[in-house]
Amino acid sequence: MSSIISRSLSFFPRSTMSTSQSKLHIAIVGVGLVGSELINQILSIPQPTSPFSLISLSSSTRTLFNPSTPIQPNFDWKFALKASPNSADLRALTTQLQQLVAENKRVAIVDNTSSDDVAALYPTWLRAGFNVITPNKKAFSGELELWQDIIKASKESGAKFLNESTVGAGLPIINTLKELVASGDKVIKIEGVFSGTMSYIFNEFSTGKPDGPAFSSVVSIAREKGYTEPHPADDLNGFDVARKLTILSRTISAFSHTSTTTALPTLQSFKSVQTASLIPPALEGIPTGDEFISRLPEFDESFAKLRTEASEEGDVLRFVGVVDVQGGVVKAGLEKYPTTHPFATSLGGSDNIMLFHTERYSPRPLIIQGAGAGAAVTAMGVLGDLLKLV
Ligand SMILES: NC(=O)C1=CN([C@@H]2O[C@H](COP(=O)(O)OP(=O)(O)OC[C@H]3O[C@@H](n4cnc5c(N)ncnc54)[C@H](OP(=O)(O)O)[C@@H]3O)[C@@H](O)[C@H]2O)C=CC1
Ligand SMILES: N[C@@H](CC=O)C(=O)O
Ligand code: NA
Fold it and tell me: pTM, whole model, 2 decimals?
């Protein structure tokens, strides 16, 4: 991590980074796994030269806001946030941040929640001149109108939205895709393993042998490792992959300067993606992640049967996604691959792998692979976006 930070910092002349007026004022909303790690990473940048001033933190219940005394490395922010007399109020925070913009200060708001309500505020924040940085997929993969309003608001005000960690966590997926299409390349197809959780589950569960660990036990471990969404069903129903495919499709359409993407369907939301869920019907709609995990062992036998069938054909199971621009298809589901296929041989842990087939990268695709979930790599992608702003 530190090598990435020091490499990025060396891009910026020190004289432009040190005054508090010129620093980027950061307000963080959501201090769970990713949010806490992001705070650590921001505060690990040597303070005198840091381009950032961390001025506000919000959980779902409390807020700290103090632009005159930014948060410093040894400050016990967890205790201070819990003890704060100010309840969380994003409308009030918006007004406070507007005051900073009026004083010519640069502001970025970082959403580390998975909340639709927070995501719905992005157009307001962009119009107010705040840059929006987030690993939250909701706004970019939800209703088309919100996505269109975000693009419009960013164009109107010049404030940026950056969302690298929404696909492949810290892997450089969104930035690479934007550069490919903005430079005139034409995407033919993107395919791969887009879920760290699904990757971990099937790398462990389906190795080509007829038996192995119980499905429910690998799901529990994926959750303990911090790979899953707050509710693991959001991974297992394929919606997390469908959201990522929606983000990629919309990024292609929004940042291309050619009109060669006409076959690509305009997705009304991630629900328009053809998605094959792995949730047994009896577990649909279970409200909490804990209850979901406790009921999952009831279905271990049927998952074991799928594993045995694949193994008898010399195959492994992998959950994959495709954005087929030429064929006009966007889909996600469980597939079988021979044990010699790269999806079987080269993935480990929470690895994602994405193959970009483009006019320039043809016949051999551009391939990006590495950890695609986990707090450290996700926060790094968010910090990378913040560094792009300074
Ligand atoms: N974990 C990973 O590997 C990856 C995660 N992501 C994305 O990063 C985001 C965060 O994930 P993660 O940290 O794992 O999730 P967590 O559940 O650990 O953290 C989310 C936090 O958001 C807070 N929150 C919810 N609603 C609000 C609100 N209205 N205002 C302020 N805070 C709120 C919750 O706070 P409270 O505790 O107070 O309820 C919770 O602590 C998600 O969108 C996820 O999809 C993206 C890539 C990878
Ligand atoms: N739950 C997601 C986290 C990253 O987006 C995944 O498993 O990939
Ligand atoms: Na990424």
Answer: 0.94
